[in-house]
Design brief:
It is built from 5 helices and 6 strands; from the N terminus they run H-H-E-E-E-H-E-H-E-E-H. It is of the alpha+beta class. A 6-stranded mixed sheet has the order 1-2-3-4-6-5, with helices on both faces. The longest helix is centred in the last third of the chain and has 22 residues. The C terminus is likely disordered.
């Protein structure tokens, strides 16, 4: 996703959600360097039919937004984008992917469950809704616990070596 995609992304966002992200949310995500991708139809000069935004954290990837155009849902495009998210996490050796989903979004929750996500908690009143607020179900997928432990051990060893060799400034 680039700034040039934002018109198409915003058009899709307002179709898909009663309380869409603002263009500023997407601009801020791009400026922050979040992982972003658009999915474009196979047709020549095809439209943007989906996208995701994810934020890398310490030992995790947090999926912030995954959207498929309503007219394109139910054709495996959500799974394809989710595969891309998981591939990014695996390539970065991030052991856990987190997300929030509206409690009422049974279809999305089922997709995430089929893809190995489990329900880890509930954020009460997380989402704006037509009548007040709606709860979010927090879901996670653990990708590779062994790789995670190896990465932590490697990072700790590197931090110790860096601190010994060059003092605190060597870690920056």
């Amino acid at each position: 996703m680039t700034v040039a995609d934002l018109g198409a992304v915003m058009a899709l966002e307002v179709q898909a959600y009663s309380h869409p992200w603002s263009q500023g949310n997407f601009v801020d995500s791009l400026a922050a360097g979040h992982l972003t991708e658009v999915l474009v139809s196979d047709a020549p000069a095809g439209p943007v039919i989906g996208y995701f935004v994810a934020m890398e954290g310490v030992q995790e990837l947090h999926l912030l937004n995954l959207t498929i155009a309503p007219a394109w849902q139910g054709r495996g495009h959500g799974s394809a984008l989710l595969d891309a998210v998981l591939a990014h996490a695996e390539a970065r050796r991030l052991p856990t992917v987190w997300l929030e989903v509206r409690a009422s979004n049974v279809r999305a929750r089922a997709l995430y469950a089929r893809r190995g996500f489990d329900e880890a908690g509930l954020r009460r009143g997380y989402y704006p809704a037509a009548r007040g607020r709606e709860d979010a179900v927090v879901m996670r997928r653990v990708l590779a616990p062994a790789a995670s432990a190896q990465r932590v051990a490697s990072s700790a060893a590197g931090a110790t070596a860096g601190a010994t060799a060059g003092g605190p400034d060597a870690l920056e």
